[in-house]
C-alpha cells in the first residue's frame, strides 16, 4: 500500500499515526494535493489528501474512511470499537477534531492572502470555532487518562493530531494555558513514537 499526502497535513498525520499504531507497513509518498498535483485526480476526484492506494490498484480517500479501513485491516490494537454507543462517541470526537483542522486551515489560508483581499472577519470567525471545539474536547476528556477506556483510541489520535496542527500553524492560540488537561494529554501522546515521528515540519 501507499499513502499519498503532505507531512504538514493533520489529516495525513492522523492516518500515519494509525498506520504506526497498527504496525502496518505502508509507503508514504509526498503529494500536496490539488488539481495540479502529481496525478492525484486519478486516485481521488476531489484532489484532496490523504489517499490510500491499495494493493489491488483501487484507492480510498478521506482520512475518516482510511483510518477505519486500516483499523479493520489488522486485528491488533483496535482503535475503533465494534458498533455501539462508544464507537459513535469516538467517531463524534473524530469529527470534532477534524472540524478544528478545517477551521484552522481556513484561518491559515485566509491569513496568507494579500492584505487587500484578506477577511479578518473570516479569520476571527474560524478562531472562535476553534476555541469552542477545543473547549469541547477538554470538557469531554475531563481528568481521564484517555477519552475512552484504559488505552488510546482513534478519539485520542484525532484530537492529538488537531492540537498538533494548532501548535504548528497557529501557535499564538494558547490552548495549553486555557486547557491544562488537554496539554497533559497531548504531552503524553507525544511520548508515543507514532506521534513523535510524524511531527509536521516546513
Structure write-up:
The protein is an alpha+beta fold and 202 residues long. It has 2 domains: 2-73, Glutaredoxin; 85-196, Up-down Bundle (Glutathione S-transferase Yfyf (Class Pi), Chain A, domain 2), CATH 1.20.1050. 55% of the residues lie in helices and 7% in strands. It has a 4-stranded mixed sheet, with helices on one face. Helix 1 crosses helix 6 (154-169). The chain is globular, with a radius of gyration of 17 Å. The two termini are 25 Å apart. The mean pLDDT is 95.
Q: Strands, helices and their partners?
A:
Blueprint: E1 2-5, H1 10-22, E2 27-30, H2 40-43, E3 51-53, E4 59-61, H3 63-73, H4 85-111, H5 120-141, H6 154-169, H7 175-178, H8 180-189, H9 193-196
Parallel strand pairs: 1-2
Antiparallel strand pairs: 1-3, 3-4
Helix pairs in contact: 1-3, 1-6, 4-5, 4-6
Q: Rg to the nearest angstrom?
A: 17 Å
Low-confidence stretches: none
Strand content: 5-15%
Largest beta sheet: strand ordering = 2-1-3-4
Which CATH architecture of the largest domain? Answer: Up-down Bundle
Integer count of domains: 2
Amino acid at each position: 500500500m501507499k499513502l499519498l499526502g503532505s507531512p504538514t497535513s493533520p489529516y495525513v498525520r492522523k492516518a500515519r499515526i494509525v498506520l504506526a499504531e497498527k504496525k502496518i507497513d505502508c509507503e508514504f509518498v509526498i503529494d500536496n494535493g490539488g488539481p495540479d498535483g502529481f496525478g492525484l485526480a486519478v486516485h481521488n476526484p476531489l484532489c484532496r489528501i490523504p489517499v490510500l492506494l491499495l494493493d489491488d490498484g483501487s484507492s480510498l480517500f478521506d482520512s475518516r474512511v482510511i483510518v477505519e479501513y486500516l483499523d479493520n485491516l489488522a486485528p491488533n490494537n483496535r482503535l475503533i470499537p465494534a458498533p455501539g454507543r462508544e464507537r459513535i462517541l469516538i467517531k463524534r470526537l473524530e469529527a470534532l477534531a477534524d472540524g478544528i483542522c478545517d477551521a484552522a486551515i481556513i484561518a491559515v489560508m485566509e491569513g496568507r492572502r494579500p492584505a487587500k483581499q484578506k477577511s479578518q472577519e473570516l479569520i476571527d470567525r474560524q478562531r472562535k470555532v476553534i476555541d469552542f471545539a477545543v473547549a469541547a474536547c477538554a470538557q469531554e476528556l475531563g481528568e481521564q487518562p484517555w477519552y475512552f477506556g484504559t488505552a488510546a483510541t482513534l478519539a485520542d489520535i484525532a484530537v492529538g493530531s488537531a492540537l498538533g496542527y494548532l501548535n504548528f500553524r497557529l501557535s499564538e492560540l494558547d490552548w495549553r494555558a486555557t486547557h491544562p488537561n488537554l496539554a497533559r494529554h497531548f504531552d503524553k501522546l507525544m511520548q508515543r513514537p507514532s506521534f513523535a515521528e510524524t511531527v509536521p515540519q516546513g
